[in-house]
Amino acid sequence: MADLQPPRGTHDVLPPASERFIALERLADEVFGQAGFGRIITPMFEDSALFDRGIGEQNEVVTKETYRFRDRGGNEVTLRPEGTAPVMRAIVSHHLWDEGLPIKVRYAAAMFRYERPQKGRVRQHHQVGIEAVGSDAPALDADIIGLAARFFDAAQVGGAALLLNSMGHLGCRAEYRELFVAALTPRAGSLSEDSQRRLAHNPLRIWDSKDPADQAVLADAPRLPDHLCSECSQHLEEVRGFLDDWGIAYTMSPGLVRGFDYYTRTTFEFQSQALDSAQNALGGGGRYDGLVESIGGPSLPGIGFGIGIERVLLAQDAAGNAAATEPLACFVVGVRDEDLPAAMRFVRAVRAEGVNADAAYATRGLKAQMKHANRLGARTVALIGADEAAADAVTLRDMTTGDQAMIPVVEAIRRLATKGPST
Ligand code: HAM
What is the pTM of this model? Predict the structure, then answer.
């Protein structure tokens, strides 16, 4: 039998690379948690009807990319392709509005889309994101965008350009859609095959096309921000006012329509300046003022974003900012078989002080254990042999300088602890 491999479009995340992955989840917890977003954990799969209603039955993610199947009980379920609709479902299931508005939640979760795998595009990706429901205040939109900007700054992605647009509310978007279709229909023959199909079902997605033929047609097509109603225009101006006030740079991008049908008003995307255009979207989001209602809840506006962890890791690599993982501070070596209990006690004691520490678990010869310590990149080796056992001491050897000294156990623990976890 051939070697078993992870399914196409999925990856194992192995240590130590996984430390960087987790560090990003921690960063999101910190940045979003600090701003009042509590963590929500929803199931990995939902009734398929949720995505039909929430994202749209005609939406290309729903029709072409979902992992959708009947379970053994005959229920139609779908692995979540994104986080927003499931979070809205949870809000409706638990009437979370009873506890006051806005409802603010954060998540870190795997998403599943049957896409053609390529660099930065996988079938199971991971997002950290936030959603805020129950307010349509422009200050909230700006705060949300600002939190994403802070995340990218702290993650050192080497520059993330912010693109901003407004899709208008459902009314002005519907009017614009008619205008757009009317303008493009006479030139439909010049559009790519994909865009001709979209013209019938999901015309605004044509803005997403990178095909030069489509770009030529779009060059003089009507643009959504020029056709917003006065309230939506005012809303956008206020969002921009806050961003300007905080010095957050952005580019107005009338073609930014995003991939889901639920978006209304503010939409935005952060693009990496270090990655190719096929995978440069690091994260994106926007308002979805009709979504909660469309899945059976009350009429509550909402806004949020999702950030792709795999993309952020790629951007960090491209920017040369792959944060180093914490090295091993201490490797504990028991010289003789009878030194093993003392060695294990010592490794547990220094770990309890917050020091990264490891041991060989068996006394297989001093040379083999020192080799092991070197392989792990330990900064210090703590040796326990006959002399140390007799004196209730350990010998601490600095692996960089080669300096070593025998000191009492209590003093050794204190010394390792004060040097910090990775020293
Ligand atoms: P999205 O733009 O589809 O939005 O995904 C968010 C981010 O997830 C993307 O910017 C990208 O970094 C990453 N991503 C998406 N698909 C893949 C893939 N196949 N492989 C690797 N990374 C991927 C949403 O999912 C919305 N739910 C965001 C949102 C939240 N809007 C409002 N609230």
Answer: 0.93
